[in-house]
Design goal:
92 residues; mainly alpha; 4 helices; 11% strand; elongated; TPR-like_helical_dom_sf; Sel1-like
Length: 92
Amino acid sequence: MKRKKIIRCKEKEVVLVKKDFGMAAEWFKKATENGSGAAANALANLYFNGSGSPKDPKQGHHYLNLAVKFGDPNGVPALVNYYLRTTFIKTV
Protein backbone atom coordinates (compact mmCIF):
# COMPACT_ATOMS: atom_id res chain seq x y z
CA MET A 1 0.00 0.00 0.00
CA LYS A 2 1.29 3.41 -0.98
CA ARG A 3 1.85 5.95 1.74
CA LYS A 4 -0.58 8.82 1.68
CA LYS A 5 0.66 12.31 2.23
CA ILE A 6 -1.32 14.06 4.93
CA ILE A 7 -1.17 17.82 5.34
CA ARG A 8 -2.91 20.10 7.79
CA CYS A 9 -4.86 23.07 6.48
CA LYS A 10 -6.64 25.37 8.92
CA GLU A 11 -7.07 22.72 11.59
CA LYS A 12 -8.33 20.08 9.13
CA GLU A 13 -6.49 17.12 7.69
CA VAL A 14 -6.34 16.82 3.92
CA VAL A 15 -5.26 13.54 2.36
CA LEU A 16 -3.57 13.78 -1.02
CA VAL A 17 -3.95 10.65 -3.12
CA LYS A 18 -2.38 10.04 -6.52
CA LYS A 19 -4.88 9.54 -9.37
CA ASP A 20 -5.29 5.89 -10.30
CA PHE A 21 -7.04 5.64 -13.67
CA GLY A 22 -6.77 1.85 -13.67
CA MET A 23 -8.75 1.63 -10.44
CA ALA A 24 -11.22 4.20 -11.77
CA ALA A 25 -11.74 2.06 -14.90
CA GLU A 26 -12.51 -0.98 -12.75
CA TRP A 27 -15.13 0.91 -10.73
CA PHE A 28 -16.64 2.48 -13.85
CA LYS A 29 -16.97 -1.01 -15.36
CA LYS A 30 -18.79 -2.26 -12.27
CA ALA A 31 -21.12 0.74 -12.29
CA THR A 32 -21.75 0.29 -16.03
CA GLU A 33 -22.66 -3.36 -15.44
CA ASN A 34 -25.30 -2.03 -13.03
CA GLY A 35 -26.76 0.31 -15.66
CA SER A 36 -24.97 3.60 -15.04
CA GLY A 37 -24.83 5.68 -18.21
CA ALA A 38 -22.55 8.27 -16.63
CA ALA A 39 -20.05 5.54 -15.71
CA ALA A 40 -20.20 4.14 -19.26
CA ASN A 41 -19.48 7.61 -20.64
CA ALA A 42 -16.56 8.09 -18.25
CA LEU A 43 -15.19 4.66 -19.16
CA ALA A 44 -15.46 5.51 -22.86
CA ASN A 45 -13.32 8.60 -22.22
CA LEU A 46 -10.71 6.52 -20.42
CA TYR A 47 -10.49 4.18 -23.43
CA PHE A 48 -10.34 7.05 -25.93
CA ASN A 49 -7.55 8.75 -23.97
CA GLY A 50 -5.66 5.60 -23.00
CA SER A 51 -5.95 6.46 -19.31
CA GLY A 52 -5.89 3.42 -17.04
CA SER A 53 -5.92 1.08 -20.03
CA PRO A 54 -4.40 0.94 -23.50
CA LYS A 55 -5.96 3.35 -26.01
CA ASP A 56 -8.86 1.48 -27.63
CA PRO A 57 -11.34 3.50 -29.73
CA LYS A 58 -13.49 0.41 -30.40
CA GLN A 59 -14.03 -0.13 -26.69
CA GLY A 60 -14.64 3.60 -26.26
CA HIS A 61 -17.32 3.45 -28.96
CA HIS A 62 -18.89 0.41 -27.29
CA TYR A 63 -19.15 2.21 -23.94
CA LEU A 64 -20.49 5.39 -25.57
CA ASN A 65 -23.28 3.29 -27.08
CA LEU A 66 -24.01 1.90 -23.62
CA ALA A 67 -24.05 5.42 -22.18
CA VAL A 68 -26.74 6.36 -24.71
CA LYS A 69 -28.65 3.12 -24.08
CA PHE A 70 -28.62 3.76 -20.32
CA GLY A 71 -29.90 7.32 -20.80
CA ASP A 72 -26.84 9.41 -19.99
CA PRO A 73 -27.68 12.96 -21.20
CA ASN A 74 -24.05 13.49 -22.22
CA GLY A 75 -23.93 10.23 -24.16
CA VAL A 76 -25.63 11.42 -27.35
CA PRO A 77 -23.46 14.55 -27.81
CA ALA A 78 -20.34 12.48 -27.11
CA LEU A 79 -21.41 9.84 -29.63
CA VAL A 80 -22.19 12.49 -32.26
CA ASN A 81 -18.78 14.06 -31.62
CA TYR A 82 -17.17 10.63 -32.01
CA TYR A 83 -18.88 10.05 -35.37
CA LEU A 84 -18.00 13.54 -36.61
CA ARG A 85 -14.33 13.06 -35.68
CA THR A 86 -14.00 9.60 -37.21
CA THR A 87 -15.95 10.50 -40.36
CA PHE A 88 -13.97 13.70 -40.84
CA ILE A 89 -10.66 11.90 -40.34
CA LYS A 90 -11.58 9.17 -42.86
CA THR A 91 -12.77 11.59 -45.56
CA VAL A 92 -9.95 14.13 -45.40
